[in-house]
Structure prediction request, 671 residues.
Amino acid sequence: MVLAVLMLFSQQAVGKDVVDTLVMNRIYNYRKSVGGSLEGMTTLAYLKYRLRTDRRNKLLFFVPHLHVLARSDDKDHLYEIFSQFVFHEDGTHEMEQIAQSSSFTRRRRSLLNNVQSYLLPRIYNEMLYSDHLLSPFNRRNSRFYRYEVHNTIGNQLQITFKPQAANTQTVRGQAIVDKHTGRVISCTLMGEYDMVSFELRLQMGEQGLYSLIPLESHLKSKFTFLGNKIRGIHEAKFQIPIDLPRPNGVEDHWNIMEQYRPDSLEEEEKMLYFKRDSVIQSRTKNDTVRIRKKNFAKDVLWGIFGENLLQRIKGNFDNDKGYYRLSPILNPLYVGYSERRGFTYRFTLRGGYVFSPNSEIRTRIKLGYSFKLKQFQINVPITFYFDKNHNGYLEAGWRSGEHQTNSTIIDKLRTGQNDTIDWKKMNLDYFRHTKQHLTVHYDFTPYFGIEAGYLFNRWKSVDGKHFDTFNKPKVYQSTSLMCEFRIRPLGYQGPIISVNYERTAKKLSKKGMNYEKWEYDCSYLYRMPLMRSLSLRAGAGYYSTQTEDAYFLDFNNFRDDNIPGGWIDEWSGEFELLHRNWYNSSKYYVRLNATYESPLILLSWVPLVGNIVEKERFYFSALRLSALSNYMEVGYGFTNRLCSVGIFTSFKRFRYEALGFKFGFELFNKW
Prediction:
């Protein structure tokens, strides 16, 4: 009797496992069963945002897109958008606004732009969004989740899921699924990412490719930051079957939005518009001197100085053909720290103009200051693409502020001089380096390209008055010609092999500053599923010819960058603890750098701590110079919504040398 009961329970347990496996496999395979491609598919959508400021303080001025809430006297705001979405198969989409309306009494505003994308996840992809949040409905992510399948009415099953370990890259929730096809009918996703906690309810489409995107989205969000708390209710309806004439430009008017709004507003929402119209009418009727002064202080002074100093500045012009992006000029969130450079401050300016689909001009100006090195650096590249289809471009660049050392010059100055001179106080071995270049690049095929141009280098002594005392030149310069071949064995998605040759143009350079240089480099960024990547770089360079008066050594692929960016920009493929003087002291170098990145390695599985870790990295670097052999660095780093942190250890000849840290703010970098 007991044996029969045990067998019955065993059969039921096995049966449940079989059902669970079959249902989950149908969900995982649903995208493939639909077939086709989302590339270029369009839909009309209505989006509505209702924001309420529960708590706020002056720190809200530093948050992108939200500084208007720090100034506003109102706690509730409403924002409506009617748009057309264009989808791409890679999980991204484009949004074109057709009409919009808001309860703001002044300039048109958009708030929490980063939250807009939460309304349109791709639930069957690896990532719910283009580069974050592991989807529980993709087979590759199944090891990160625990699932339970429950029977419901008819042909529908309820599935609950929660992460194996709490992490900011995972979600929890439930879904109603068609047990025969695996189509997700509706689902609820809850999580926290980039300082926004959210609860998203989705009603998915019903047929074909439209079943892969939501029909309706309802999102509750909460943003908290150092005493500030803002809650939002966001609603979106996609696949709206209306055909109305489009207004000229994006109008900001109640009557225009009335034509596109699929449902009526709630009474509280109507009151927000009524209050807005009342304030505008009051300002028009009472346009006194007192009010004009108040508006001047708030709008003009803050608009010109406050927003431009503390907020990101961006905009488009000439029908969106041109654009500009400027990071905040005075913002503590752009401060970083490393053992070698100390505290650094940086900001960037990006801009460009599109002449045609095949031609464009762009720039990314980087500026930074190192408080430890007391150096201000600037890097200004301007690139004109004359044939984007073949990666054909002409680039002019200027870089200045970097300090290089050279002990050979001071050794020559000492010859025949009085031994009583205190050479250490003169600081004669530091020179400010300025570099200009003009190059042209063209890829004849996806597998082969060539680049050629000229380079101008200028070194000026930091303490030039002492050179005048000894009647010696304090400025040294050279002009050289270069040619580089780039080989891509697997095309643009594979490794890049480059061979660079550079030689002094004797007729354009000062006498004695002659050299010949070769550099070889191979780099490969291998992207793997689940947001993992392996970055590899190996290279070598040497001076095959260098005259006695060619004092300065300057390699293109092995140099110190004192304007570090964030986790994405410069936190890979560098030597973090190597002293800056080593970069210009050897006639040759051999380097190797490797970085492995994944969202779930070590800290991600630690309770509480793992809940805020977004990505982790392991670093390994090796270097050999003429006077420095068997130099290695190993490191570990992680990034989260607040900052990026790295710890590095260096070894010389396999013996421990130093331990160092690197730190940088990452707040709102994705906003």
Confidence is low (pLDDT under 50) at residues 1-17, 288-294.
